[in-house]
């Protein structure tokens, strides 16, 4: 892993100010670090913005890594960017020296008639997912009392099967992050294909556009040892009434599994993998939301993920709209709809205003986003990177304009080819 200073968001002056603030807000007595102020967690949260880590680590892992490095620098009285990089690199090398272990996680799977259908399995970059109607004996848990939380009821909701994920990792947090991200991606793809071209004229509190989301709790194991005796992983958005509101039949899910499997295989080596994975995960957030405004917001964010440069400090709605129209059959009408959706999105973000037309326009945006994501998954693998994709969508949309551009490109190439050899080339 390589760590370098990143001045995109945080200047040297800003980092120096953070280090001074942390030093002034802490004391060391008898080798113990104490805090004078309550903002140390805020400083830990923003500290990773000052550095670039390759290969990229998760945000939570970066916070843990740099906060440990910051405390080590405070103890050593070396509060500099160079010292932070040295400490963080050393800490990460220690982490990599830890042996890999098998971690597993299970949750309820929201599909009916699993007892009368076969299950399925999917794989994503070292994480395996499989559905089952019954858990192995070592994974089963009785109801139990968790201190500070209350009673945990593993078999609720009753009458459903399970989804089990597994991967090899060095610690529980990294393993759970990977497994939950993989679950989000896989459910997002299943929902994408299961909801394809489905439009409804009704809604409600329990209504979602995607039918698959995680159960109320996730039970984690290291090897065959349960890790939840003093902590629990759970879904904060779980709603029992929504879960019971028209869950899909397993045979319907099995019809779209082959498409999800093909998409995962394409994404594994895809040059746009990071962009497309983030877009699918944002889409999944929208698909399983019962809040129409949040649903619209997440769909728009998925569209921004596709059509805004990764290093752009802010996105332009006009830019997103213009680029998203490259493949639309009715660009004028779609532009009008997207411009209206952009205003709805801004009203919600800036003023908390919800429109009466969220339901139908939200479905239009969802259908547009899933078409574009699916197109790039299966038709974008020949592009070199995201920049090349954006160059493609920025080309003129009219046939005549493209033909004129073709003539100009060939003329420019002919000019280059006609140049005399460089005098030094001999």
Can you describe this structure in just a few lines?
49% of the residues lie in helices and 14% in strands. It is built from 14 helices and 13 strands.
Descriptive overview:
The protein has 426 residues and is of the alpha+beta class. Strand 2 (26-29) and strand 3 (32-35) form a beta hairpin. The chain has helices spanning 12-24, 40-46, 59-76, 81-96, 172-194, 240-243, 250-268, 273-287, 292-307, 317-324, 331-351, 358-379, 386-393, 399-417; strands at residues 2-5, 26-29, 32-35, 51-54, 101-109, 121-124, 127-132, 144-146, 150-152, 161-169, 217-222, 225-226, 233-234.
Give the strand tally: 13
What's the overall average pLDDT, rounded? 92
Coarse shape: globular
**Low-pLDDT segments, ≥5 res:** none
Protein structure class:
alpha+beta
How far apart lie the N and C ends?
A: 44 Å
What percentage of residues falls in helices of 4 or more residues?
40-55%
| Number of distinct helices | 14
Report strand %: 5-15%
- The H/E string reads EHEEHEHHEEEEEEHEEEHHHHHHHHH
Q: Roughly how many Å is the radius of gyration?
A: 25 Å
* Biggest beta sheet attributes: 7 strands, antiparallel
List the keywords:
alpha+beta, 49% helix, 13 strands, two-stranded antiparallel sheet, seven-stranded antiparallel beta sheet, 426 residues
Write the layout of secondary structure elements.
Layout: E1 2-5, H1 12-24, E2 26-29, E3 32-35, H2 40-46, E4 51-54, H3 59-76, H4 81-96, E5 101-109, E6 121-124, E7 127-132, E8 144-146, E9 150-152, E10 161-169, H5 172-194, E11 217-222, E12 225-226, E13 233-234, H6 240-243, H7 250-268, H8 273-287, H9 292-307, H10 317-324, H11 331-351, H12 358-379, H13 386-393, H14 399-417
Antiparallel strand pairs: 1-4, 2-3, 5-10, 5-11, 6-7, 7-10, 8-9, 11-12, 11-13
């Amino acid at each position: 892993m390589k760590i370098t200073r990143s001045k995109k968001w945080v200047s040297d002056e800003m980092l120096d100010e953070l280090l001074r603030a942390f030093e002034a807000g802490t004391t060391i007595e008898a080798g113990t670090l104490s805090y004078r102020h309550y903002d140390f967690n805020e400083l830990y949260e923003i500290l990773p913005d000052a550095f670039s880590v390759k290969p990229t680590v998760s945000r939570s892992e970066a916070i843990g890594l740099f906060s440990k490095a910051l405390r080590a620098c405070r103890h050593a009285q070396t509060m500099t960017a160079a010292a932070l990089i040295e400490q963080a690199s050393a800490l990460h090398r220690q982490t990599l020296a830890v042996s890999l272990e098998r971690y597993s996680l299970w949750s309820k799977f929201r599909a009916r008639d699993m007892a009368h259908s076969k299950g399925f399995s999917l794989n994503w970059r070292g994480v395996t997912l499989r559905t089952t109607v019954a858990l192995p004996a070592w994974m089963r848990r009785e109801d139990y009392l968790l201190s500070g939380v209350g009673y945990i009821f593993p078999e609720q909701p009753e009458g459903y099967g399970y989804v089990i994920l597994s991967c090899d990792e060095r610690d529980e947090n990294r393993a759970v992050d990977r497994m939950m991200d993989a679950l989000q991606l896989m459910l997002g793809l299943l929902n994408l294909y299961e909801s394809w071209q489905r439009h409804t004229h009704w809604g409600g509190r329990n209504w979602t556009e995607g039918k698959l989301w995680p159960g109320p709790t996730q039970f984690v194991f290291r090897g065959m040892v349960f890790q939840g005796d003093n902590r629990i992983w759970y879904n904060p958005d779980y709603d029992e009434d929504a879960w019971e509101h028209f869950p899909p039949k397993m045979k319907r899910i099995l019809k779209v599994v082959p498409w999800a499997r093909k998409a995962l295989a394409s994404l594994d080596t895809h040059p746009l993998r990071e962009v497309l994975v983030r877009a699918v995960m944002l889409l999944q957030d929208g698909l399983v939301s019962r809040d129409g405004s949040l649903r619209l917001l997440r769909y728009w964010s998925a569209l921004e993920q596709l059509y805004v440069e990764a290093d752009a400090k802010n996105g332009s709605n006009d830019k997103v709209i213009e680029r998203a129209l490259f493949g639309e059959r009715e660009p004028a009408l779609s532009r009008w709809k997207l411009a209206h959706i952009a205003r709805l999105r801004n009203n919600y973000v800036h003023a908390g205003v919800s429109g009466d037309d969220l339901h139908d326009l939200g479905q239009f945006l969802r259908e547009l986003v899933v078409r574009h994501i699916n197109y790039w998954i299966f038709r974008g693998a020949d592009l070199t990177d995201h920049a090349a994709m954006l160059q493609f969508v920025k080309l003129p949309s009219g046939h005549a304009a493209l033909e004129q551009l073709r003539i100009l490109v060939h003329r420019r190439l002919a000019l280059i080819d006609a140049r005399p050899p460089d005098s030094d080339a001999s």
